[in-house]
Amino acid sequence: MTAGPTSATRPHNRKQLIVEAAGQVFSERGYHAASMEEIAAGVGISAAALYRHFPNKYALFAECANVMVDRLVAVLDQWPPESPLKDVLAALTRVTVAHRASGGLYRWEARYLDRDDRRQLRAKFGQVVGRVTELVAREFPMPEEGLRAVAALGAIGSVTMHHTSIAQRRVEEMLVASALRVAATDPAAAAGSAGLVELPAQPVPRTRRAEILAAAIPLFARDGFANVTNGQIAQAVGLAPSAIYRHYPGKVDILVAACLQAAGLLAQAVDRSLHQATDPDQAVVALTAAYVAYSFEHNALTSVAEAEIVGLPPDLQRPLILAQREHIAVWEQQLRLSRPDLDRRQARLLAHAGLGVVVEAGRALRWRDTPENRDAVTALVIGSLTG
């Protein structure tokens, strides 16, 4: 019988290595699709060894969800209250970029935390937002300092949601500059932009299949795809659970249909907005206003598409990822026409920063769909993009 590994051969930071590997797996595959065996393999240990550190997948997930915000809080504790906003944002950006593979876990997957754990996570992020808000208010005294702070953090956090490859130092410089521009943007700068957008109407459900889809989207958005049953969807439509299968082979097919509907509506909105633009700068404004309007009007549909795609099987993911890439390519093209100083990867990085602003600013506004809120978020996104 061979002896087990000794303390001399076991890494002293094994728990940290597990959390790093798990955060990446959870971010890439989603909470429910990730397995403890896959995480253990990523660290080079057995599943049994993994369970010696964490009793179950939820405990490991909760640790991963907190690790990034704990790092951000620790960074802020190192800077005195009188520190320049730029220096503090740079420090937050360095941490975020260094852990981009796992740092975006909180954005979508945190909805699977228990209520108490979710409340604690929000309280920690509240500390980060509160500190940045104080600095924003001091250096750029104008209305909506809290919204500008959240939006600036959204620009920085966007790097965790994509894989665009640029030298780390350049990424940090661009994200800090984008976040500073957001913090310095007057939310009233794009007043009236909401009135310029005409969105395609969401299809009216005229068939039983369409009714099922319309009923499932808000359930997926509220509770998460994995937590919604066919019985709940059927009840919302007034059907027996078995009747769902006459229209969709499985629940995952409803999710795919929702994601494809989101991609189609967004593509229509973008085409309409760009058709009316007469120059590159105006095209960027039109594209931004259309995306913001779409995000507010179809928030449940958008959140489902963004949050759940990682958990789909690869063959079902493929057309949805292609649609996402095509959308980002539109942003990339318009930004490079407006800003010839950007190369393709830089434009892509900034495009994602703008989308990050929409997500975090929209959440801060609780997605209350008013012309004023659309205008404010549009202004902040444009601020994140301009040089």
From TrEMBL:
<feature type="DNA-binding region" description="H-T-H motif">
    <location>
        <begin position="229"/>
        <end position="248"/>
    </location>
</feature>
<dbReference type="InterPro" id="IPR023772">
    <property type="entry name" value="DNA-bd_HTH_TetR-type_CS"/>
</dbReference>
<feature type="DNA-binding region" description="H-T-H motif">
    <location>
        <begin position="35"/>
        <end position="54"/>
    </location>
</feature>
<keyword id="KW-0238">DNA-binding</keyword>
<protein>
    <submittedName>
        <fullName>TetR/AcrR family transcriptional regulator</fullName>
    </submittedName>
</protein>
<dbReference type="InterPro" id="IPR009057">
    <property type="entry name" value="Homeodomain-like_sf"/>
</dbReference>
<dbReference type="InterPro" id="IPR001647">
    <property type="entry name" value="HTH_TetR"/>
</dbReference>
<dbReference type="InterPro" id="IPR050109">
    <property type="entry name" value="HTH-type_TetR-like_transc_reg"/>
</dbReference>
<feature type="domain" description="HTH tetR-type">
    <location>
        <begin position="206"/>
        <end position="266"/>
    </location>
</feature>
<dbReference type="Pfam" id="PF00440">
    <property type="entry name" value="TetR_N"/>
</dbReference>
<feature type="domain" description="HTH tetR-type">
    <location>
        <begin position="12"/>
        <end position="72"/>
    </location>
</feature>
